[in-house]
Amino acid sequence: MVPAGAQARCSRPGFVEARSNRRQAAPGCRPPRAGLSRPAMDTNSTALRPAGPLPAYRARIAKGLLKPDPAQALAAETLQDLWRRLRGYEPQVEPPEPDGFLARFFRRKPVPEAENSTPQGLYLVGEVGRGKSMLMDLFFACAEVPRKQRIHFHQFMQDCHQRIHRWKQAHPGEADPIPPLADAIVAEAALLCFDEFQVHDITDAMILGRLFEALFARGVVVVATSNTAPDDLFKGKPGRDAFLPFIALIKQRLVVLTLAAERDYRRERIRGLPTWHSPLGARAERALDAAFLELAGVKQGKRCTLRVLGRAVELPEEARGVVRAEFDDLCGRPLGPADYLTLASHAHTLVLDGIPRLGPENFDRARRFITLVDALYEHRCKLVASAAAPPDSLYEQGENAAMFERTASRLMEMQSQDYLSLQHLP
């Protein structure tokens, strides 16, 4: 169980880093533009017209990158329809003021509200590993919207809280930062794509209803992926009654589509990978490089910050729920159970480099490693690791060697197909 007050966010410069600006366009889509704020390309040119997410999805199947899946195909068709309705979509916003972002954020005059013809967005819900993020990425890469942004939902909320804090500092005594916050967001994005839409924090729940109402009123279209149906958001939490209008708003402004794929592609990928590589060396390092690429879809992730009981715990790399770190990053500094439980909740897979032989001379690190493994096991987080020896030879003799026997047993169990088939518990 994750400690109360623990949150995770991935650190990126600015409000958002658009996924299309740092990754290649999906097959079937035109190459991404260099900047978010450029005018839309000429959509009347058939040479430049993107084919949309459905042809992009089919192209991946044709190339052998994906296997046909009826549930994914239905979701791709739904996204294709939304793609058509959004081509060239650009709701009205006020032109930027000379002082740039801060002036736009702090201004008092609201952006004119959009007409009721704003297209409905999409809420794509399903169990983990069914391809929700992949489908949204195809849609985002093809979307013919001049201002679009793709972000993990927790990161979005962290950025919103930071903006609200700055606004309150600049306007002491004024009660409502939501309109200027919505103004600033719509000036940056008419299409918001949220990955892993979840609500666990009361501070998020308190502002979501009014913020999204303001965003929708300004013409923002939302596409979101989630493991949780709208009716189950914030379920069982104090104050949920006040949260129910937000759920109704989501169901009104977003089409809710369940991705009922029978296969868990994420678990299939990891079941096909060796997960323990020893001894240490170039071969083991290459194996972990390949595992991270296979599981995360990128060669290198972004730095990630875990918020644990008011503290910031920095991680070197994270992408799509896969964290990569050196052994000393996690066990060579004074981290405790709350830190490891938050990590295991946030990441479905940990790629861990350089586990050394352990013994009385480095027992502090061994003790932290034992706690880390327990946290991973509790949350069914998968572990891909390079180590100096097999699990049962890591801590062979000396004081506390008997204590490590249970950890070695767990490490061997975590390599089994039965464990790798278990669903991650956030």
From TrEMBL:
<dbReference type="GO" id="GO:0051301">
    <property type="term" value="P:cell division"/>
</dbReference>
<dbReference type="Pfam" id="PF03969">
    <property type="entry name" value="AFG1_ATPase"/>
</dbReference>
<dbReference type="InterPro" id="IPR027417">
    <property type="entry name" value="P-loop_NTPase"/>
</dbReference>
<keyword id="KW-0067">ATP-binding</keyword>
<feature type="region of interest" description="Disordered">
    <location>
        <begin position="1"/>
        <end position="52"/>
    </location>
</feature>
<dbReference type="GO" id="GO:0005524">
    <property type="term" value="F:ATP binding"/>
</dbReference>
<keyword id="KW-0131">Cell cycle</keyword>
<keyword id="KW-0547">Nucleotide-binding</keyword>
<dbReference type="GO" id="GO:0016887">
    <property type="term" value="F:ATP hydrolysis activity"/>
</dbReference>
<dbReference type="GO" id="GO:0005737">
    <property type="term" value="C:cytoplasm"/>
</dbReference>
<dbReference type="InterPro" id="IPR005654">
    <property type="entry name" value="ATPase_AFG1-like"/>
</dbReference>
<protein>
    <submittedName>
        <fullName>Cell division protein ZapE</fullName>
    </submittedName>
</protein>
<keyword id="KW-0132">Cell division</keyword>
